[in-house]
Amino acid sequence: MTTANLHPVATANFLAQKAGHYTIGVIELNNPQALNAVTLEMFRAMEKQLLAWRTQADITCVVIHANLGKAFCAGGDVKALVQELNEKSGMQIATDFFVTEYFVDYLIHVYPKPILCWADGVTMGGGVGIMNGASFRIVTERTMLAMPEVALGLYPDVGATYFLNRMADGIGLFLALTGARINGADAVAIGMADGLIRAEKKSEFFAGMNDLNWVSDARTNRDTLCDYLKSFAEIDANSELMQRRSTINRLTNHSTIEEVDNALRCWKGSDEWVRHAIQGYLAGSPTSAKATFKQLTEGGNLALEDVFQRELDMSLNFCVRSDFREGVRARLIDKDHKPQWQPATLAEVTNAEIHRLFSKQHGQANCLATKFSRLRSPPAGDLRRD
Length: 386
Known about the structure:
Layout: E1 3-5, E2 12-19, E3 22-29, H1 40-54, E4 59-66, E5 71-73, H2 78-87, H3 92-109, E6 115-119, E7 122-124, H4 126-132, E8 136-139, E9 144-146, H5 160-163, H6 171-178, E10 182-183, H7 184-189, E11 195-196, H8 202-209, H9 218-232, H10 245-252, H11 257-266, H12 272-283, H13 286-297, H14 304-320, H15 324-333, H16 351-357, H17 367-373
Parallel strand pairs: 3-4, 4-6, 5-7, 6-8, 7-9, 8-11
Antiparallel strand pairs: 1-2, 2-3, 9-10
Helix pairs in contact: 1-3, 2-15, 3-4, 3-14, 3-17
């Protein structure tokens, strides 16, 4: 095996790994001081490289991973985003960040070649967005996943409208409202991952990919990679989350956020995981909770492209005015963990404010639609996740 370092850009490394007559493109997230949080520069570099590999004949598949064992990716670098929003006037940095992030996420979803994501360790928010669109999503016994945006005064974005709505028994809504943490076995059980492989087998797994029978046909390569993954994956990994399905369904199966709120506040069970999850909800932004409920309950039938367009509007409106900046200040900048939510209660969150968050009042140009239009005639052998 020979591996050539193409061009490290920002803190994402891009490698060309020879595999017989073909090449495996490797994206390595490398921002260890921030648990591999992805910066705007990293997203831009990933976009450029993915577009280049997309039409490169010798690239047979793409692997996304990180070498930091305790984290695959803790999310997008919202701390840097908020700091810049506070220092500069205007919305250009927010527009650039979310347009680039969502385009990368969408590109992974519709990529014409198989993409394998090895999500070992902490995988939250934007990290889940990168992972979710991959053809093959691998977790380990060390994986910890969460969508913690409500605690930051935001909402679960990066395509969460799409993937959280595909979970049964209200699990997606519960994870969104509470920011609850789940493990690799849970992720496989609810369809967020395709297989659990022991972390110690990573080197063996990656080395073996070089010897697979790669061909020029993307669909055949996808089948080959699927069979290879199955040969390593743990069978019948126990999911404690699935044992809580009925409890979660009782808590979330309501027609309004006020009813869900009441169910969560009135829960009297003894399950410590559920209790901790509910505490996460109670500590989160009421505005975020109400917006998240509308996002998921009214967005289940949206096409993937429409999901990202809608989430872009939401994110920009959250940046204009919401609890987002305060949440990031309290959780990530000052770390006093005492956000002052405005308003402080769900009852005070007006329907007009929620309507604004889903509108185009942010006034920014729709650059994401322009990027999407360039992908509507994909290369031969296009593979899309069903």
